[in-house]
Amino acid sequence: MTSTNKQKVYEIIFQKIQQEIADGHLKVGDKLPPERDLATLYSVSRTSIREALRLLEVSDVVEIRQGDGTFIKNISLHQVQDQLSNVLLKTDKVVLYEMLELRLILESQCAALAALRADGHDLEKIAQSVEAMKTADDHEEAGIQADLDFHMAIAKSTHNSVLEQLIASLEPHMQNTIEATRKHRLSSKANITRTFDEHKAIYLAISRGESEKAKTLMEDHIRTIREEISELSF
Question: PROSITE patterns annotated for this entry (predicted)?
């Protein structure tokens, strides 16, 4: 897979503003700062800001009033999240795929080491994240956080400070892959159940000290996600 779909600067700004809306930092009717201020805020050119605003306008997220400014339109949070997710998938498919490839390599080894080295406290943390995932059910934000906590807890359970720091440095990118893939998986109750079952099986293997099984289950889990990403239409 090549990186021909490298994300453009204006697409990144488009995503950032969408995320500000989804997070509630920008609300319906709010006026965005002038282009020059946005350019300074995001450390990009005014041209990139202008292109991002045009994309937001085409997406029906903002209204550009000549001589008056750019305003957030009456758009629901659900719509914003859908649009943001679609853009992330369209612009980041290669990045997502490559990140999952890296996770496959690193996290399978983390699971194997965790099964050999996890102590009671480590296992409790992993178990808590699994329980939080179950409680979250189809609640997207809570599910994403529980999923991320699960993988970070396993990394900490390796008791390898270098590996733990490496995984921690990748946390924002891991969250991106989790957000994209969980949105797809939340499309059906069966997928939600399967996702939970995959994580629970990994935890059980680690808790029983089954190193090779934990490694294999983690590999299978991430490979399945990669296959789902590659099969999605963009």
Answer: HTH_GNTR (PS50949)
